[in-house]
């Protein structure tokens, strides 16, 4: 699974009627590839997957694969809290030509560790595609433990984990307990540099929709030993990272994208868009533009 340093969890553009806007999706994908995205995650949390029908998910994935045209890997979010449903979605993603699948920890059911192990094992054994696990206890209600990730890493095509637990100790334990071929990615933009400092591979990002090149510069500086400059970039990006997650994802990032000229539309209910009281987002964007003038000229 060649995710690179930055995989972008892509928003799903909607038109004024709340339907998927495939033309804006094309513009968005090309924008992401040109601005530092090494791999694309479709139908994830940021893509508002809970509000998409199975038909919409399949059509959006097929469209993304066509537009990307093998320039970067396309990873399909096919996980759910229904193992059989996830297997069906995973098989369909393979048929459509996805380069891998992302499987979220089952939400609402609250399975124990053995239940999660069997769930992921069953899905992985149903496909030849590489598997990216996705641990996000804040949304799923349960934490996929380091021990279970290490156990799952022994399954041939389970190759990486997106860790959105915010627990660097857990991430360190996974890195220590898995082979060098297994990759650990941050699910939080703000932990990109700290995770890489302990051996992580990169980030599955939301902020990369608008600051992918700056994040790539930070990662490049880190890999090339310019730690001080990487740290300065991290500090400069932090206010934007915080703003992107100041409201339920993807509400702020869709707002920012519209502000920089990509009309990705609003979010679907039960999420609601940005109100006039949220002017702090405009201030964050203005401050960022002043710091990185070259990007916005």
CATH superfamily: Aldolase class I
Number of domains: 1
CATH architecture: Alpha-Beta Barrel
Form type: globular
Give the number of DSSP strands: 8
- The CATH class is Alpha Beta
Major sheet attributes: 8 strands, parallel, barrel
Total DSSP helices: 13
| CATH T-level topology | TIM Barrel
Low-confidence stretches: none
Beta-strand percentage range:
5-15%
Using only CA atoms, what is the Rg? 18 Å
Averaged pLDDT, please? Answer: 94
Structural class per helix/strand content? alpha/beta
Helix-strand sequence: EHEHEHEHEHHEHEHEHHHHH
Lateral arrangement of strands in the main beta sheet:
1-2-3-4-5-6-7-8
| Helix proportion range | 40-55%
Distance between the termini: 35 Å
Notes on the structure:
- With 297 residues, the protein is α/β, with parallel strands linked by helices.
- It has helices at 22-34, 54-68, 83-96, 113-124, 137-140, 146-152, 168-177, 192-197, 208-223, 227-244, 251-259, 280-291, 293-296; strands at 6-9, 39-42, 74-77, 100-104, 131-135, 158-163, 183-186, 202-205.
- It has a single domain (6-296), classed as Aldolase class I (TIM Barrel), CATH 3.20.20.
- The chain is built from 13 helices and eight strands.
- An eight-stranded parallel barrel has the order 1-2-3-4-5-6-7-8, surrounded by five helices.
- It is globular and about 50 Å long.
